[in-house]
Amino acid sequence: MAIYVYQFRFNLKSLEEGYLPEFTGHLVRGAFMEMLKRHDPQVSSYLHRDNLRRPYSLSPLYMPKKLVLRQRRRQLKKDEGMSAEGSEDVPKDEGLSGYGRGVRVAIPSGFSTFFTLNLLMHGVAREVTHSLLEMPSGQLLLEDVPFVIHSIDYSRREIRTPYEESEWAGGNELTALLLPFTVDLKFKFPTQFSSREVPYPVVLPMVPLLFGNLVSLYEDFYPENSLSGWLEGRGYEMEDFFSGVKRWVYVVAHRISTKQVYWGKEVPFTGFLGWVRLKVESERLGVDFIKWVYTLLELGVYSHVGKNRTVGFGKYEIERAPWVERE
């Protein structure tokens, strides 16, 4: 049996000009939940349930690189005391927002952008879809900049699981996974893990923490196809899977950096982002566990990983893998 992720892309247009921080995930989540709460408080309450893993993830507003880099250059010149055309028009940031203090991106009126919402449970996706269809109109206020939702794109993403024995048997995809292979992950936004073994946040791509987080998300949101149940039915324990991953899946190369994000909290969010290459020793890990490596990594593309994943932290893409077609 496959699992499914339900993805909504909200296409927006700004109604007025203004300024926003570079990172907007927390603003998007707050505005979207407020809009949903006004129309359907019950669905909003379930999505934002306290002390439980939330069955969704959001991505920040898409910001063109040219727009962001231009603002960074202006801010750099301003910080150095140099004149920059238009820099005097950039308001001083009195709060904590963006990737650095004071960095604000100028948003023109009529600016087109989007954000994505990924829902990890079928029942939740059904209720949210009904709410969106019944909503008369959608406007989001991100700080002082109003946006209108002019269209919503919907797609359902299928992720194969090891429960689908017939789908895997003899396939070229499985043959490729039986040989040692590498997977390239591109972390788009800062990522941070927590560990019971240390009293501080972990800002490195630690494979055991990555898969530990992915397994927890999978077990919470797809209990009918649980990894634990699958392992038990084949005489394994969860510890067998984690031991195999810890030993035979590891980082062989990376190009990462540590970044702080000022996102409206007193303490900035610190995490790593960039490119990470994982090596998978397929022959040693075994065909049963290799399939779960595939399933879990694919799930993470939509669920995001680590702390505060629902606002966009921990978002990654799979840039290269045996199952990813290269252009």
Any idea what the radius of gyration is? 21 Å
Count of alpha and pi helical runs: 11
Total discrete domains: 2
Succession of helices and strands: EEHHEHEEEHEEHHEHHHEEHHE
Quaternary structure: single chain
Silhouette? globular
**CATH class descriptor of the largest domain:** Alpha Beta
Percentage of β-strand residues:
25-35%
What percent of the residues sit in helical stretches (DSSP H or I)?
A: 25-40%
Examine the secondary-structure arrangement and name the CATH architecture of the largest domain: 2-Layer Sandwich
Structural class: alpha+beta
- What's the total count of β strands? 12
Largest sheet: 5 strands, antiparallel
The strand line-up of the biggest sheet is 3-6-1-8-7
Named CATH topology of the largest domain: Alpha-Beta Plaits
> Overall pLDDT, averaged?
85
**Poorly predicted spans:** 82-98
Distance between the ends: 29 Å
